[in-house]
């Protein structure tokens, strides 16, 4: 499955929108997995680098989008980082087994901390294979 086969918000206007770093190989692989788990077509996907993102979600800063995945649900609620993943565990039946672990009372700050530290290093994980662009090396230099 390639990035072009991910369903867009235009294709699924009633679906939640997952905004991810489309220049990150690791992130792209993960949203493709999410798409495969989305049997009920509840999600659509949008790279933060897509012009449609800045048009539809002008309130989101580029830096914030680069730091963490965003999920915008059908009613306009926004979930970021680990909270977004936690939300997805409730939306996709394939992820329901993870839901109790991520919803342990008072555990969200720990999950957010883990997510932030993992997200900062995501371009290193993208180098497990060949990077499609120079984005991996550019972010690794920071």
The gross shape turns out to be: globular
The beta-strand count equals 4
By secondary-structure content and strand pairing, the structural class works out as alpha+beta
Treating each run of at least 4 consecutive H or I residues as one helix, how many helices?
8
Order of helices and strands: EHEHHEEHHHHH
Report the span from N to C terminus: 30 Å
Report Rg: 15 Å
Question: Considering DSSP H and I runs of 4 or more, what fraction of the residues is helical?
Answer: 40-55%
Number of domains: 1
- Main beta sheet: 4 strands, mixed
Please mark out the parts with pLDDT under 50 across 5 or more consecutive residues, or reply none: 133-142
Beta-strand content: 5-15%
With strands numbered from the N-terminus, the spatial order across the biggest sheet is 2-1-3-4
Task: Spell out the blueprint of helices and strands.
Layout: E1 16-20, H1 25-37, E2 43-47, H2 51-56, H3 62-67, E3 70-72, E4 78-80, H4 81-91, H5 99-102, H6 108-120, H7 122-126, H8 135-140
Parallel strand pairs: 1-2
Antiparallel strand pairs: 1-3, 3-4
Summary keywords:
single chain; 142 residues; alpha+beta; 4-stranded mixed beta sheet; globular; disordered C terminus
Q: In short, what is this structure?
A:
With 142 residues, this protein is α+β, with helices and mostly antiparallel strands.
Notes on the protein architecture:
By secondary structure, the chain is of the alpha+beta class. It has one domain (3-140). 45% of the residues lie in helices and 11% in strands. It is built from 8 helices and 4 strands. It has a 4-stranded mixed sheet, covered by helices on one side. The protein is globular and about 35 Å long. The chain starts with 15 loop residues before the first strand and ends with a helix.
């Amino acid at each position: 499955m390639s990035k072009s086969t991910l369903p867009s918000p235009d294709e699924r206007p009633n679906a939640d929108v997952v905004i991810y770093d489309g220049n990150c190989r690791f992130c792209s692989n993960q949203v493709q997995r999410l798409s495969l788990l989305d049997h009920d077509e509840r999600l659509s996907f949008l790279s933060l680098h897509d012009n449609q993102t800045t048009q539809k979600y002008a309130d989101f800063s580029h830096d914030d989008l680069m730091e963490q995945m965003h999920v915008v649900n059908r009613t306009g609620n926004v979930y970021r980082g680990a909270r977004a993943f936690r939300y997805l565990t409730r939306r996709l039946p394939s992820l329901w087994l993870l839901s109790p672990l991520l919803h342990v009372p008072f555990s969200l700050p720990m999950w957010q901390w883990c997510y932030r530290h993992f997200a900062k290093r995501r371009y290193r994980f993208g180098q497990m294979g060949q990077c499609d662009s120079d984005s991996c090396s550019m972010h690794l230099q920071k």
